[in-house]
Structure formats: structure tokens, C-alpha cells
Amino acid sequence: MRGADSHNKSSTREEEYKYPNIIVKNAKKLLLLKDDILYVARIEDKSLWLNFGESNLDEVMSIVVQDTRERGT
Fold first, then answer.
1. Quick one: pLDDT at residue 8?
2. How confident is the model at residue 1 (pLDDT cuts 50, 70, 90)?
3. Other CB atoms within 10 Å distance of the CB of residue 28
4. Which of 44, 50, 58, 57 is nearest to 36 (CA)?
5. How far, in Å, CA of 36 to CA of 31, rounded?
6. pTM reported for the whole predicted model
7. Where are the domains of the chain?
8. CA 53/CA 38 separation, integer angstroms
9. ∠54-68-51 over CA atoms, to 5°?
10. Please, are residues 25 and 64 in contact by the beta-carbon 8 Å criterion?
11. pLDDT tens for residues 2-42?
12. Number of C-beta neighbours around residue 54 at 10 A
């Protein structure tokens, strides 16, 4: 019985250590969602300015892929 008790306590501690990581991960997702909502609001409000010009498509796509991987989506 004693071994089972220590196993349950260690499992509980391991789970508790996971919570801060989960909270931070979800907080980051909420910040991204907030940014997306504000971006859409700016588009709808017509307060978003676009600057048209030449771009390096390879560089742009590389940034998009990197951002997507960082977001974990």
C-alpha cells in the first residue's frame, strides 16, 4: 500500500507541474486570438492601411511557415 501512495503523490505532482505549461500555452493562444479579432475589427472599420509594393514571395512564405509552426497550428 505504501508504494501505491507514493506513486499517486508523484503522479499528482507531475500533473501539477504540467498546469503552468498548459496555462501559458493557452494564454499565448488567447493573445493570438485577441490580435486576430482586433485585426478583423480594423478591416471592418476600414482603418487598416495596406502598402502595396514589391515583395520577396519566398521570404514571405518562409515567415508564414515559421509563424504557423510557432503557433502550433
1. 62
2. very low
3. 13
4. 44
5. 9
6. 0.51
7. 2-71
8. 24
9. 25
10. no
11. 555 555 666 788 888 888 889 999 999 999 999 999 999 99
12. 5
